[in-house]
């Protein structure tokens, strides 16, 4: 009986050793627990996302509903309209920009964000003549919206602009994945400041509320 156990143990050892010494190519990958966390998905920001769900990728280029970045402002309160519906787009006229008037420093940052993300289409001068259009000579044949010089956009409420930037409108895509909610509102502040009658940046004044220590006027002893 004992010899049988020894033989069996020896056979098992030989089989395991042979398996361990197999240096041939592996035909199948090992099992991975939760592979979506092990391997990141490569998703192009400006790519067509309409068929991602069919491939098992759940990504719509917008933040998770109801989430707020730490230190940021609340997300846009209205959802995206269903195809053929414009109820929320119309209702967005009543949404007010939650950010107070920008100071000179924040306005300069808002201008930078506009030029980086919007200027390629709407132009540095907000005239709809960015590099992508270039007076009709650019790669895009249709002129983007003229934000300064077209009454339609000069009269468009800030909330409706925010809806368009958040969810996209007509040929313009969503910028919710490129810009935070606060950055989008900052850009809208900048656009409105460039339009006729727009509010200019608030001057930054010195802070006089904090008491400063008085100068030490005591006579120091000298050796």
UniProtKB/TrEMBL annotation:
Pfam families in alphabetical order: Cytochrome_CBB3
Entries under PROSITE patterns matching the protein: CYTC (PS51007), PROKAR_LIPOPROTEIN (PS51257)
The organism's place on the tree of life at top rank: Bacteria
Stretches assigned to the Cytochrome c domain: 105-195
Protein name per UniProt: Cytochrome c
One term of GO molecular function: heme binding
Signal peptide: 1-20
Species per Swiss-Prot/TrEMBL record: Lacibacter luteus
This protein's UniProt keywords: Heme, Iron, Metal-binding, Signal
């Amino acid at each position: 009986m004992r010899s049988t156990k020894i033989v069996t143990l020896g056979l098992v050892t030989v089989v395991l050793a042979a398996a361990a010494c197999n240096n041939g190519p592996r035909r199948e990958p090992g099992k991975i627990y939760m592979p979506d966390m092990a391997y990141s998905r490569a998703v192009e920001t400006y790519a067509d996302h309409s068929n991602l769900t069919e491939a098992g990728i759940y990504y719509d280029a917008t933040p998770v509903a109801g989430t707020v970045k730490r230190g940021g402002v609340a997300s846009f309160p209205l959802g995206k309209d269903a195809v053929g519906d414009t109820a929320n787009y119309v209702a967005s006229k009543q949404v007010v920009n939650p950010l107070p008037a920008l100071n000179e420093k924040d306005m300069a940052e808002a201008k930078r964000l506009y030029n980086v993300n919007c200027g390629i289409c709407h132009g540095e001068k907000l005239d709809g003549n960015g590099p992508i259009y270039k007076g009709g000579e650019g790669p895009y044949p249709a002129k983007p919206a003229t934000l300064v010089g077209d009454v339609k956009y000069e009269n468009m409420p800030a909330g409706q602009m925010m809806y368009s930037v958040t969810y996209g409108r007509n040929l313009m895509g969503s910028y919710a994945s490129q810009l935070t909610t606060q950055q989008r509102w900052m850009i809208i502040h900048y656009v409105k400041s460039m339009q006729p009658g727009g509010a200019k940046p608030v001057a930054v004044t010195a802070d006089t509320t904090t008491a400063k220590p008085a100068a030490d006027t005591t006579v120091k002893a000298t050796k």
